[in-house]
Amino acid sequence: TQSTWGKQKKTKQHKKAFFYFFYFFFCFCRPRLLCKMSIDVSGYYQQQHVHSDITNMTLSNRSFRISREMFTYNSGVQCSLITCTGTVPISYCNITYHIPVQIWIPLTYPNEPPIVFVKPTPGMFIKERHHNVDQSGFCYLPYLSEWRPGKGNLIGLCGMLSQVFSSDPPVLSGPRPPPPVQ
Questions:
Q1: Phi/psi of residue 27, nearest 5 degrees
Q2: Half-sphere exposure of residue 176, counting CA atoms within 13 Å on the CB side?
Q3: 110 preceded by cis ω (within 30°)?
Q4: What share of the chain is helix, strand, coil (3-state, %, to 5)?
Q5: pLDDT by residue (tens digit) across 31-47?
Q6: pLDDT band at residue 171, thresholds of 50, 70 and 90?
């Protein structure tokens, strides 16, 4: 019986060591590995801040994918910017929906607010005369128009999008209704 007891004790010790290893890995190592994701921040004025905000946003909402694409401003000027494409969860009539968005990070971020578009998927369309989204998908929010460096961030932006869109979703699903006859 003593040898059986010794085996049980060793098994418990192994299980305990195994538990502590995985606890340490998931709490300390894994977030650091994820934080080292490759984000091309070249050309950005506050590279560390941009990298940190994007990393924190993607850790809090795993739907976002990061890439670098050409953005055309209303003035016609084109610039290579980081874009975060994903979904923002909303709760509408006690049902969870995921609103597809694209968030562009300007080169002067965080001094300049992000540029946000709703990007309907096939089978979706933007609701006409929405208070916060125009027909091109561009988002107008007080959070963005009142942006102050050091006060706003991407996680806060996603939270605000979720809150605003939960009260009035910007997209509808199904076939687009015909334009009104004039």
A1: -90, -30
A2: 14
A3: yes
A4: 35, 25, 40
A5: 444 445 688 999 999 99
A6: very high
